Amino acid sequence: MLALQWLDNAREVMGAIERTQQDAIRRAAGLMADSIAAGRWVHTFGCGHATIPVEEMYPRIGGFVGFHPMIELPMTFFTNITGQMGIQQFLYLERAEGYGVAIMKGYAFDPRDTMWIFSHTGINAVNIDVALEAKARGMQVVVCGSAAEAQGKVTRHSCGKTIFDLADVTIDTCVPAVDASVPLKNHFDKIGPLSTLAFVTTVWMTIATVAEILADRGVQLHIHPSHNVPGDTTARERLDAALAEYKRRVAVL
Q1: Fewer CB within 10 Å: N-end or C-end of the chain?
Q2: pLDDT at position 80, please?
Q3: How many structural domains are present in the chain?
């Protein structure tokens, strides 16, 4: 069954992350913990399906304040497919050098911040723009993507580097370069991509480590609670407190 073939591939990727990426995750989490403990941000950025891990972090049940999503609608809005904000425009924009520079102009950053970027291939200009701008502002840059598979690829940015070349810490998703993993008879292209699963796996391994570090330091986290559990009479109060803290921090952006 192709369904089980995809599941085996997914397990292999998750196992590879566990075997090889724990040290990188710990180092990345340390940078992020320092940013959050300082009352600052871990800014998160991706485009295309690499916005899914950004949206997975916060706000969502079990996430906590400290992660600031930077999502440009033309870089993530795929439901039109054709017409306004369609796939053709997206493919152009993610390769358009300078677009990431314009995105970064919309926010106020601090050297204590961390920039966390998701990119499967690491070669497209918009992500590289964001990484370069973040480093110019004194931020540490964490990159999550298929780093080993990207070796030897030609960047689409004039700086001559891939995003993995610019990272202070790289978390390798251990996903094949082609992403799709299941061959289908009578077809050239495979089905069953793995990058989203790998991104979300690394997100929660990293965020859990950030939480562990901060809790060990005695830092009180503002966690987004489930507010749909019968009998939990303070859930709404905790949710309001978390959103109030987010509002307080985001005011400086």
Answers
A1: N
A2: 82
A3: 1
Structure tokens that stand for 58 in this block: 């916060």
Euclidean distance between CA atoms 20 and 99, whole angstroms: 34
**C-alpha to C-alpha distance for 199 and 38, rounded to whole angstroms:** 26
Cα 113 to Cα 94: distance, rounded to the nearest angstrom: 24
Closest CA to 49 of 160, 175, 170: 175
The values of phi and psi at residue 20, to 5°, are: -115, -15
42-45, strands of its sheet edge to edge: 67-70, 42-45, 114-118, 140-145, 169-172
CA nearest neighbour of 172 among 122, 114, 100: 122
Q: Which amino acid belongs to residue 115?
A: M
Q: How high is the mean pLDDT of the chain?
A: 95
Give the pLDDT mean for 142-167: 94
Residue 28 confidence (pLDDT):
98
Mean pLDDT on 19-45: 98
The pTM (predicted TM-score) of the whole model is: 0.96
**CATH number assigned to the domain comprising residue 211:** 3.40.50.10490
Tokens (6 digits) for 230: 């019968």
Looking up tokens 């039109």 gives 80
Spatial neighbors of 3 by CB under 8 A, at least 6 apart, are none
